[in-house]
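The data are passed on as follows:
___
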Amino acid sequence: MLNKIITFFDLSNGEEIKEKVLEQVKSNISFRGSNLWILACAIVIASVGLNVNSTAVIIGAMLISPLMGPIVGAGFSLGTFDFPLFKKSIKNLIIATVVSLIVSTLYFFLSPFKETQSELLARTSPNIYDVLIAFFGGLVGVIAITRVEKGNPIPGVAIATALMPPLCTAGYGLAIGNFSFFFGAIYLYTINCVFICIATFAIVKYLKYPSSQNFSNKVSENRVKQIIYGLILVMIIPSVFFANQLFQEKKFILKANNFIETEFTQKGLTLIYKHLNSKSNPKSIEVAFLSKKYNSDELNQLKSNLPEYGLNNTNLIIRQDTTDLKKSILNEINKDKSKQNQKDVLIANLEKKIKDNNYNNNEILSELKILFPKIKSISIANHHFFENTDSLKIVPIMIYKSVPNLSEDEKTKMQSWLNKRLNKNNLRIIAE
């Protein structure tokens, strides 16, 4: 029964010929020509995705990235103690890393958008979970490589292990001069590289790949193992520290939200501002309400309740002033309405003024012809002139043409009619 169970997990089933796998691994190590161009393009795509906070674009860049090649090559070379292959793998990985940093730094330096997006921030604080993702992602990738039927895990491994985004984030840190971003992202990139390499080494040893023909030194084999154990410690210890920080932060946020929900929200208070700071010492909860005001006794009671929620060493800060915020908001709304009404009145007055200063010459001409058939054409417009250096005068003037000419009596009658028709007392009439 036990043998049957073990058979289910036996990796020798469906295994590719070892020599063929090694040839395939070696062919993917080199970064020259097309591989280098593909890498540079993938870096630009990933940088754009991080810049605009697009997860889909970042995933696309990870799928086309050829960075896994030299890392897997390093793992295989360590597993088979092929040190020339290891040197070649490390050399190509360094080339790929430097090119990626140059391209991403140049992109972010030229990009007009320098805002730190959430996708960028996610790559600046690695922790133990990133170690687990890199290791088990590497295991999946190497197992797939050693199969006759490769299946479809490789794209998933490329996405899960996420080698491109940390490199782009490191370039972003260099471009804006933020070295904490740079070192955090490089640390995450190093974790991914090292633990993919270690996972590869583990599978190669488990599948008993033969050692290199030029290798027969037990001392060197033990030294390689010691180096690997040392790298594991160097990578894991800081990541455990960061993971603990993340755990403490999440725990504080959960407790703080429980406190706010119980003490404020469930009592019907409208919360308009909330800020939780788990990194300060002491930690702090900062809130503000729409209308509720707390006196000193109520504040002291709330602060004394904090330990009941596991919030020791935490300050409660309630932002409030002597003004009635709700009343202030309503006053501002009323002021805005008043300003809008004033604008409406001003617009109406301007429209009236424009209407008063425009004359419908065709309409007036048709009416004039009924009274004065001799009139052939008219033109009425306002004339602006200065009576002296200080005062501006606006006078409506009508120029008309009649055949034959109007008599003085007709001119007087037309003047009177137009003054009444246009409601103007200073209208001047000029014959063409």
